[in-house]
Write a structure and sequence with these properties.
- This is Membrane bound O-acyltransferase domain containing 2.
- By secondary structure, the chain is mainly alpha-helical.
- The chain has two domains: 182 residues, no CATH class; 269 residues, no CATH class.
- The protein contains 22 helices and no strands.
- Helix 1 packs parallel to helix 12, helix 2 crosses helix 7 and helix 10 runs antiparallel to helix 12.
- It is globular.
Length: 487
């Protein structure tokens, strides 16, 4: 019944989102009322789905808020990060090793993972806003920085509102407050694609109806595909002794790809429905396209076509679980001084849970990322001479990316050490060895070192920090090489 309860609650949240936008519109209702209603509805959905386990959401939020209030600003973000992540991990350990190891459906630690992202992001943004000078912040950090401590109601509304309590996605505190206060449309009304004022698009508040309907259709298709294929193509069959001994290796590769392909629509359904709920409430507006149509992808978590047709490991990462990737980038990758890529993958594994398969997946992901970067840096230039060569390269890299992703993610699905190692043994650890050979044979400088050398060569940075409105429009498409992608 867990998945049924989850879907029922999300459909109820969708109806409440429409009601929230119409009857509690910022022009009719104060931010205080909108905060109260969003929070109470969120707690109601949590209680319905998880019963008294939902008290963990309040305990985690309460402990973290106490740290924010009573700890010194200089180290508040670090203490808050440790307390919040530590509480999440303790709940995950209890759930997995005390109650039910194989319980993988809707569970109370799922919402806690999103709340952990929000709390830690908020702590770092408060630290940036109250302890650092403008010159010490990157352009994106300037936009995200929080200049005052949130009240308890604002804090709980941000963490536990009904639109994101069950499946997220994570959003920045400033974006959420702009939505509650009704100011989220203003920056975009002042400029068109060329950055000039265009009165045609500022006459009325943009409608999300078409985007919501489109996303609900995507949800229906994704759910239908998943329910049709998930039992026909189980990933566990790929380690069946009879299957491994009687099936040629190339057919094993194809089967693994199809099995992973059959799993992804589950995530497409959950994340797209969550995005539609936020859009129906009026949250997620991200400016206008060149044709003047509104964009509602501010907090979108995936781009399905870019995932399925990804021609590089990086392209797949950039379009899967986008908000989690941005969270990892902002709280770890940009701030870690020692081996940020490894630290980011480790944080991602710890955040996902305590199943050993998660750690095998993300350790493999480090090797895959390094190898993919080396191949792109050293091999790709040879295929850029003509369109036909580019197409050949794209086909080859698409196939390689899909196999690499499937190989990397298999332990994430199998969960336990035994089945995961059995799978890799059946493949003779071939992609691990190939990654090692590629990294040794095709060395490539880190992106930070390349950027530093380029900066030293030019003597100055030429990039001009964009305006806040432009940052808001582009921040969900920030590109980087390390991301969390598998939940």
């Amino acid at each position: 019944m867990d998945p049924v309860n989850f879907v029922a609650c999300q459909l109820f949240a969708l109806l409440m989102a429409v009601w929230f936008r119409i009857y509690l519109h910022p022009s009719k209702t104060s931010p205080f009322i909108r905060h109260v209603v969003a929070t109470l509805l969120g707690f109601y959905l949590a209680l319905f789905c998880f019963g008294w386990y939902s008290l963990h959401f309040l305990v985690q939020s309460g402990l973290s808020y106490s740290v924010m209030v009573f700890a010194g600003l200089e180290h508040m973000h670090k203490y808050c990060f440790i307390v919040t992540l530590g509480y999440l991990i303790s709940c995950q350990i209890t759930r997995v090793y005390v109650f039910d190891y194989g319980m993988y459906s809707a569970d109370f630690t799922g919402p806690m993972m999103v709340i952990t992202q929000k709390i830690t992001s908020l702590a770092f943004e408060i630290h940036d806003g109250l302890t650092k000078q403008e010159g010490q912040l990157t352009p994106s950090q300037k936009y995200l920085a929080i200049r005052r401590m949130p009240t308890l109601l604002e804090y709980l509304s941000y963490n536990c509102n009904f639109m994101g309590i069950l499946a997220g996605p994570t959003c920045s505190y400033n974006d959420y407050m702009a939505f509650i206060e009704g100011t989220c449309y203003q920056p975009h009304h002042q400029e068109n694609a060329n950055g000039k004022e265009n009165g045609k698009y500022k006459q009325s508040e943009p409608s999300s109806k078409n985007d919501v309907i489109s996303k609900l259709c995507t949800c229906a298709i994704s759910l239908g595909i998943y329910l049709s294929l998930c039992t026909l193509l189980p990933v566990e069959h790929s380690i069946n002794d009879g299957f491994v001994s009687s099936t040629p290796f190339h057919l094993q590769v194809i089967y693994l790809y199809l099995a992973m392909l059959a799993l992804r629509p589950k995530y497409y359904f959950v994340w797209t429905l969550a995005d539609a709920i936020n859009n129906a409430a009026g949250f997620g507006f991200n400016g206008y396209n060149k044709d003047g149509s509104p964009r509602w992808d501010l907090i979108s978590n995936l781009r399905i076509l870019d995932i399925e047709f990804a021609t590089s490991f990086k392209m797949f990462l950039d379009n899967w679980n986008i908000q989690t990737a941005l969270w990892l980038k902002r709280v770890c990758y940009e701030r870690c001084r020692i081996n940020p890529m490894a630290a980011t993958f480790l944080l991602s594994a710890m955040w996902h849970g305590v199943y050993p398969g998660y750690y095998l997946t993300f350790l493999t992901g480090i090797a895959m990322t390094m190898a993919a970067r080396a191949v792109r840096h050293n091999i790709r230039p040879y295929f850029q001479g003509s369109d036909s060569h580019k197409r050949i390269y794209d086909v080859m890299t698409w196939a390689g990316t899909q196999v690499a992703i499937s190989y990397t993610v298999a332990p994430f699905v199998l969960l336990a050490v035994g089945p995961s190692l059995k799978f890799y043994r059946s493949w003779y650890y071939c992609l691990h060895l190939l990654c090692l050979l590629v990294v040794l044979a095709l060395p490539v400088k880190s992106r930070r070192l390349q950027a530093k050398e380029q900066q030293d060569g030019s003597g100055q940075r030429h990039a001009v920090p964009p305006a806040a409105g432009t940052l808001r429009q582009t921040k969900t498409t920030e590109s980087w090489t390390v991301a969390s992608l598998f939940t």
